[in-house]
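Ligand: 6R9. Inputs:
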Amino acid sequence: MSETIQTLLQENRTFPPSEAFKAQANANDAKIYETAAADPEGFWESWARQLDWFEPWHTVCDFKPPYAQWFVGGKINAAYNCIDRHANSTRSDKPAIIWEGEPGDSRTITYGEMLDEVSRLANALKSLGVGKGDRVSIYMPMVPELAFTMLACARIGAAHSVVFGGFSAESLEERTNDAQCKVIVTADGGWRRGHIVPLKATVDEAMDLGCPSVTNILVLKRSGQEGEITNGLPTPKYNEGSWVEGRDIWWHDIVPQQSTDCPCESMDSEDLLFILYTSGSTGKPKGITHTTGGYLTGTFATSKLVFDLKDNDIHFCTADCGWVTGHSYVVYGPMANGATVLMYEGAPDAPDKDRFWRIVEKHKATILYTAPTAIRAFMKWGIQYPDGCDMSSLRLLGSVGEPINPEAWMWYHEVIGKGRCPVVDTWWQTETGSIMISALPGITPTKPGSATQPFPGISVSVYSESGSSVEVTGPDQLHKATGGFLVLTKPWPSMTRGIFNDPARFQKTYWSRFENAYFAGDGVKLDEDGYLWLLGRVDDIMLVAGHNISTMEVESALVDHPSVAEAAVIGKTHEVKGQAIAAFVILRHGHENHPTLVDELKKHVAHKIGALARPDDIFISAELPKTRSGKIMRRLLRDVAEGRALGDTTTLADPNVVSALKDKYESSES
Ligand code: 6R9
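Predicted complex:
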């Protein structure tokens, strides 16, 4: 990757923090980087000390690659830190969760109320035989009870495995069996785009496929029966599933009558807090494990510094708790800080494309954390939607999940943030547990499209093919622009403790490419200011006539054109060049395809990057194949462009998108 074209990403706009933001920021002194780099363990220890521990640790970090232990010997409970310590002090009446259902129903739950709810639920789980060391599958819509269930598990020392409610019965079955879960907590259904997602019926299907470890299914009534009026709306037709007496239990039959007294289990810092399965593009999902003390320390610290989280903030993270972002920045990080989180059940375009902005306006959200895929959809829909809402409450914007193209960043900054709000582009993974690379909004001047700097205490290096490295430890260093593999060279508290029951795969996937370093699988470029530019998964990087070109850079050049909302770029086999560039492009609202557009776009890319990056083919499309968490699946686009049968499509949000795309692509070629 050393040959990555040097002209790419010549982004020279910079946005320093405003004086006003800086003055009030939780972190506004750049010395934090030096202090943390000089003594990372001491830095992390200072954060761990801000949590409530039942017993102190004797060793801060014990690292034997690929495994690290943090705060060894310490005893702690995550639910205690996310609820009790706030409920038992001045935050008892402070809203912990402000929730909005898709049909428009809304609830506010204070920390005091949450303590009771979670304690009752924890006692109910105990009555079903769940205890310390057990595992529980959670398959629920984004309702407050989803957060309660995660925290109730944590309270009694059972690990949760949240399975996103859009996953199939097979996915739920596979994950439930791998983790050997005792109980599945679900709901009758959840709302998505005006329809009911039949969760309980899918659990029934998973049970029919065979989940022998499961003894009970606890079912929250969310959607109601067909025709029944809930949330002021009659429930539409959906598959309710069937009821198995003895196995299936309604939440309302056993939870409300439980005692609110349920002491928190004293957990070892290194006890399992949760497993979260990541599908990746191939192979069986990996059960990524996280333990208690380190994970909580990482999410606590990053929430406070990256989001500049304050007591009066309303933190709106739009991720579902089925993804790590929902774990770390809806539940554990903000709640360990005693913050108020805003939680939304449904789709951003239900009932209309201004739903997020209406929610921001209504609940006066101050922080918005969302994904580039959503931002590009908003760009495509047009500014009339956000412009119709008062979003003056917002003071900080965050992005996560994919590289954010500079133009999408600018759109977010200008249209949503009105130029007032710092934008933090945060790079991290399920495996890293918490944010690894991001600006600190009161310190770091941002550049559109760059995730900027490693978080204090995190050691990032850019390795070449051979493993020689460029160290990135602070904002003041000058570096030669270079591209390579993103690796993390020192342990950090929230790092995964491995793949559940598969140590060999853990070693091979992350720790075999380079010695004693964690290889994240992403390509990255370092500019002369020491800023990091994420290039996407290394598997996606193209080799065109002997030059490595990142799909992300060509995509960004396309999105830079006024008519383009979103682009996905792939390398297609080419006799002469090795690979030729093919692009799939979605147009912005109000822009039509016309006979010269494709040529114009090709020229635009050649002009922005260089003739070498000029796409051979550009295909205008209405949609792109994406995973359920919104990441573009370029592997399938390669299949389309090369006329192959489509590979595994099970992780797609909507498999019809790619088959329709394939048909259109093939008919356009003939
Ligand atoms: C948090 C999350 C991890 C992969 C990661 C990378 C991509 C996430 C990014 C980003 C560029 C960012 N990714 N954030 N790429 N810039 N700010 O998304 O976890 O679902 O495990 O995905 O997502 O490729 O390796 P996860």
